[in-house]
Amino acid sequence: MASKDRILRLKEETRCNILDASLKIVKEGGWDALSMRKIADEIEYTAPIIYEYYASKDAILMELTRKGFLLLAKQLEEARDRHRLPEKQLQAMWSAYWDFAFAERELYQVMYGVRVSCCEMAKIMPESEMPMDLIWDVIVELMLPHVGTEEEVCIKYYTFWSVIHGLISINMVNRGNTDETNQEVLKTAITGIIRSIKG
Amino acid sequence: MASKDRILRLKEETRCNILDASLKIVKEGGWDALSMRKIADEIEYTAPIIYEYYASKDAILMELTRKGFLLLAKQLEEARDRHRLPEKQLQAMWSAYWDFAFAERELYQVMYGVRVSCCEMAKIMPESEMPMDLIWDVIVELMLPHVGTEEEVCIKYYTFWSVIHGLISINMVNRGNTDETNQEVLKTAITGIIRSIKG
DNA sequence: TGTACTGTTTAACAGTGTTAAATAAATTTA
DNA sequence: TAAATTTATTTAACACTGTTAAACAGTACA
């Protein structure tokens, strides 16, 4: 009867190995490199065996996503418990959130649907800078008569873009908020930043 | 010799048809549904013909990305030209940016690497709400003694999250900013929002 | 008319997720 | 212990993916 336990333990271990192997492959070659056969190679089995443990590739991604959220929650709690005042807590928590995103970059990607540049050279594409340039100019004008340094304008620009792009991403990937909430968030953020630019 | 022109015109048209067909397929079934054979079906050719016009599938995505940036830039310009004051211009431009993202949702996705929930049920996963709950609570506490409504807290939360998630996405998908710039943007935004919460 | 060239398709390769059938190993039963 | 049954694992296959090479058709030119 103890052998039943041992077998169950072994099964649980393989289940875990599959996740570990997946993450390893992704860390080495990105999410596109992840395939059932490569996972099988890594755990020294053949592909169909994986289906004894997970119903599909999606189920594996799902489990990794779940683990990601759990880990993030844990780190947020730890950050919170390092402080007493709510404002300090919030600051520490968002800082922990930021650190998590880059320490566990692959998990964050699958958790929030951030795809790393589908066509690699999108960054070398001059057209991709046109929207930025247009808005950049208006920010510069808004700061007049003070002539902002490149760094200053850059910070303003990215603050704007982050709010908008973040809100858009969240609405696209997850269920969306109500339209009113979105507009409220946008209005609050944008007018806030504009005020901060004008001093 | 005019026939040469006609043939060139036809080629240009097919080049364009390929893009149109691609976008149509994506709008109907999402980016995963896009395949060379389906594009070929749509333009009533066989798959290898596409390689006479685009070097690879990636090249097609790239061209769509380019068109996206051009369209976005155009709409930003139009928004700007509807106003005179820089602050009004900025507001209109970001509003146009927002509208573009959802009017041309597929283009926005390929432009900025926003993948729509890889494993569809991530939203039904209770763990995915743990990080939000943790931060939610601290925001509520920060607002004390005023007891915020659900809507109020929600707006604060999403304002925070948008800034952070937006900045993270941008850094992951494109080339990153310098660390100092990131930290500056983060600090500015977070302290700003915290201040606005405390009134 | 025959030759070169261009447009287009068929066939194939290597890869993907996934499933069904075949086989090997272990366990239970007689 | 030997046979029967169950479990673990693999091989083979299907339908799909992007991509390429070879075959075929059609047009233009000599």
pLDDT averaged residue by residue of chain A? 86
Strand content of chain A: under 5%
Oligomer: homodimer
- The computed structural class of chain A is mainly alpha
The amount of helix of chain A comes to: over 70%
Largest interface: A-B, 88 and 88 residues
* Span of the ends, CA to CA of chain A: 74 Å
The CATH level-2 architecture of the largest domain in chain A is identified as Orthogonal Bundle
Structural notes for this entry:
- Two copies of one chain form a homodimer.
- The first copy, chain A, starts with a helix and ends with a helix.
- Chain A has eight helices and no strands.
- The first copy, chain A, has helices at residues 2-29, 36-42, 57-80, 86-103, 105-112, 130-143, 150-173, 179-197.
- In chain A, 71% of the residues lie in helices and 0% in strands.
- The model of chain A has no long low-confidence stretch (mean pLDDT 86).
- Chain A folds into two domains: 13-112, Orthogonal Bundle (Tetracycline Repressor, domain 2); 125-197, no CATH class.
- Chain A binds a DNA duplex (30 and 30 nucleotides) through loops.
